[in-house]
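Hi C.,

You asked whether I'd gotten around to modeling the 327-residue construct. I have! Everything is below, sequence then structure, no commentary in between.
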Amino acid sequence: MAPDSESLQRHTENGKVIQTNEGPPEGAGKATPRRRRWLTALASLVFTGLGQVIAGHPARAFVWLGIQTACLAAIVAAMYLGSPLLCWLSIAVGLMVYLASVWDAWRIPRRDPFPSRLRLVVAATALLGIAFSLDIPRRNLIGSYRTATPSMEPGIAAGDYIFTTRLWSGIHRGDIVMFTSPQDETTRFLKRVVAVAGDEVEMRKGELIINGSAVERHLLEPCADGLCNLWRESIDGRSWKIRIENTDFKLYENYGPETVPDGHVFVVGDNRDNSLDSREFGPVRLDAVFARPAFIYWSMGSAEDAMPGAGPRIREIHWDRINHVIE
């Protein structure tokens, strides 16, 4: 009976009959089954490099994970530097690396000889551990936020979507920060720091006074609706626009004086007459501050600004605000 897995052939050499057993052609039986390809590709969709580990190529898996980690570092650096172009390029490269790793897991052949199961279990465990470890700083270092109120207009409007970063070197006057509300820990605010620990802050007839000196400001132009004026305010060599209403009644026109205690900052909204801030709830603890805005990556009008006749879910996109770096 002929063997199932090999062919029996006879050859003659110098008049002698030689019987040889030849194995299957080179490469036969090494093709990766379609089901295994789907498994490795899906595994890499879940975690970069996991499909390569399943196929028996742990070293290849760590190379892909390392490249994606470099892309993540570039995204964080771009947000810290306030560079929308570098951020979008890093995101695009990171996405291409992710898809390329999935394709690589789909097409890579099963390693022969296949590594021991113990070795693969150790490699998979290490890979997942590193992936989870990288996900923790990603969640803690970068994030996004949607503004729902006009309290920071004109610089940040209601409906702006903002990338945020938790990397900074100290908090200074003029910084915009995100913090947990002293009145409700489930509420997050975005305001500008105008005074730090030890500063004496007050407001007189809407004019901000720090340590006995009025903060420099000059009139820019009236608002488009004619209901307010835009001013440029400057502190410590930094400047930004603020909005002041043209009305006789202003809730926070006068405040203080008050000295900011240690471990606290005094925050106000750039829309001075339409902002819930330290003039209402007092100085904010530093440990309540958790992020700073980087730039606006999307902007869409609020429900009240929906395009007439277009339905309640269709809102105007503010193209001119996208990629605006927050000052």
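If it helps when you're writing up: The chain is about 30% helix and 30% strand.

Thanks,
B.
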